Each structure stands twice: as structure tokens, then as C-alpha cells.
Amino acid sequence: MKSKSKIALVTILIGIIFIQGICVWAALSQKPSEVKTASGNAVSQTVAEPVPTTAAPKIKLSSQELKIYCKDSAQLRTVIGYAAEWVSSDPETVSVDEKGNLTANKAGTVTIKAIDKNGNEAECSVISQKVAYLTIDDWPNKHTITMLETFKKYDVKATFFLAAQRTHHDIYKMIADEGHTVGNHSYSHNYESIYKNSTSLINSIDRQNAFLESVTGSKPAMVFRFPGGSTQGKCRAHGTTYPRLLKENGYQIFDWTTTSGDVSAKADADYCLNNIKKQCVRDREIILMHNKEHTAKAMPQIIEYLWSQGYEIAPITKVTASYCFVLDKK
Ligand SMILES: [Zn+2]
Question: Which ranges in the chain belong to alpha helices (H)?
């Protein structure tokens, strides 16, 4: 009896082990199964293999190196994979938010990393470049032509904030044709009439857009400089109303960070150059100039000086960060 029960027990154990083995084998070898379509044809259906965790997709960035001008912003995107976290090696220089939006706070180079939830990383080097914007205001004249020749020689683009006049329409067109930014500086430039109320201001700006389009053959950029600046008495008397109104209408507003002083009675080429040398100390400079003979004369030295200080000279465009005394000055 004892040996019989032993045999029976061993037989049961072998049976259990055999059945478990069958189950494990069945689980491991899922073969393609056959299913029938509505028309009765048999098609093969393969059960997808689970993706091993060690082979998670690598993430890639839309750019490996990116240059933006100081104070401007841009966005980095992943082209493969999903970034769960964005990290800047130096947020004081260039910060990044959870969507990959960059803000260049000061000049320098940083590494931006995108990290997905599996710990995969992709990185991009971002250069925040020192930049100087040469801006020339009011009415073009023969000195503007001298400046345009200098800009061509040095391969530099500037920004002209233009008011209207009856003469020199060919120079307005030259400015646009040579790739400089044509900005709006109101039609009349008359403080009394343009700053009277919101309607007068918008009318003068609209009229100037139409004038600029008629003389240059293309629509001007949506960039505006208040005649006299946003702190001009008659403009400032309305608080922040006018700058806010223009922003709501899609304009970027540009006052200045440096003035060449070229409208001063004592101004000559050296005076303008020295003012610029004294004031250009920030990573981003917006330089105020006018269509004057001494300004045109100083222009080659102004460009060479700015380059010697590491500035890139760029035209203001729609993506250039606005700078308005009334709204932005800290
Ligand atoms: Zn002006």
C-alpha cells in the first residue's frame, strides 16, 4: 500500500509539472491566429510583440544649434519622442519653459536639454547673441543715400522709422529694395495733431502705411516708433493708452536704449560716435539716429566700433522683442 501511494503521488506531481509546462509554453509561443473577414476570407493576424523597455525611442530636437538675439525668444521642438522636461544649463542667460519656449535674458551660450519620461535626452546649444539695431528716423534725404552706400559696403541692414513728405519718394523705395526694415513713424510727425486722441493717432499711422506702400511697392513692417518717443509729453499725457492701443493693433513698439545725439546743435561725426561708444554697454542696444550729414559720415566708424565690441548688427523685424519706455522700461 505504501509503495502504491508513493507511485500515485509521484504520478500526480509529474502531471502538475507537465500541465504547468504546457501553460508556460503556450504563453510564450503566441502563433499568428486566423480570423475571418466579413466576406469569409481567412486573414492572418499576428499578436504584437511587447516592446522591450530597453529599446524606448530616442528623442531628437528640431535643432542642434540655435542662435537668437539677446532679449528675443524662440521655441525648440522635439521631432522624435516626447519631452517630459526641459532644462537649461544656465537659466539666467537663456531660460526654457515646459513647452520648450526659450527666452534670451543676456548674451551667452547655454545647453538646453529635453528629457523624456524614460530618461532619454536630446540637447541643443543655444547662443544668445549681443545685438545692436541701427535705427534712422524721420524723412529720407541725400544723406540717406550715403548711409545706404555704407550699409551695402559693410553688408549691414538697418531700420528706418519713416514719416511722410512730398519729395524723395525714390529714396523710400531704395531703402525697401535694399532690404532694410521700413517702419512706421506716423504720417505727419506733428505732436499736436497725432497725440490729440486715439483716433488721430491711428489715422496718422494708417495713412502712413498707405503712403509707405505706395512709394515702396510693399507693405511696411508692423513696427512703430512714436515721434519724440513714447515719453514725449503729449503722448505720455495719455498714460499707457497709446502704447497699449498699438500693441492691440498688432504693432511692435521701439523706443531706444542709446541716442547718437545727432539732432544736437553741437553734433558732428565724432560727437555721434562718442555718444554711441559711451552708451552702448548692454547686450542689446537700439540706437537712435536721424538722416543727418554727420551721422552718415560717422556710420562706417559706428559699424566698426559695434563689431569690435562683439555686437551683431541686425534689422528690427516682427519677431524682435518690443522696447517701449512706458511699458517695458524696468
Ligand atoms: Zn521723429
Answer: 2-28, 142-154, 169-177, 191-194, 198-216, 233-236, 241-248, 269-279, 293-308, 325-328
Question: From the CA of 294, how far away is ligand 1's center (Å)?
Answer: 17
Task: Label residue 79 exposed, middle or buried (CB < 10 Å: 0-12, 13-18, 19+).
Answer: exposed
Q: How far is the CA of 179 from the centre of ligand 1 (A)?
A: 21
Indicate the residue type of 100. G
pLDDT tens digits, one per residue of 285-320: 999 999 999 999 999 999 999 999 999 999 999 889
Among 186, 246, 191, residue whose Cα is nearest residue 211: 186
Note the pLDDT of residue 328.
87
Helices within 81-187 (DSSP H only): 142-154, 169-177
147-200 pLDDT per residue, tens:
999 999 999 999 999 999 999 999 999 999 999 999 999 999 999 999 999 999
C-alpha cell belonging to residue 282: 548692454
Question: Pairing between strand 312-313 and 284-290?
Answer: unpaired
DSSP-derived secondary structure for 188-204: S--HHHHTS-HHHHHHH
Q: List Cα–Cα distances, 253 to 105, 193, 235, 312, 314, in angstroms.
A: 19, 20, 14, 21, 16
CATH of 57-129, one of 3.40.50.720, 2.60.120.260, 3.40.50.2030, 2.60.40.1080: 2.60.40.1080
How far apart CA 188 and CA 107 sit, in angstroms, is: 38
Measure 319 CA to ligand 1 centroid, in angstroms. 23
In the CATH hierarchy, which top-level class contains the domain 131-328? Answer: alpha beta
0.85 surpassed by pTM: no
CB 231 within 8 A of CB 258: no
Residue 195 CA to ligand 1 centre (angstroms) = 14
| Alpha carbon of 103 to ligand 1 centroid (Å) | 31
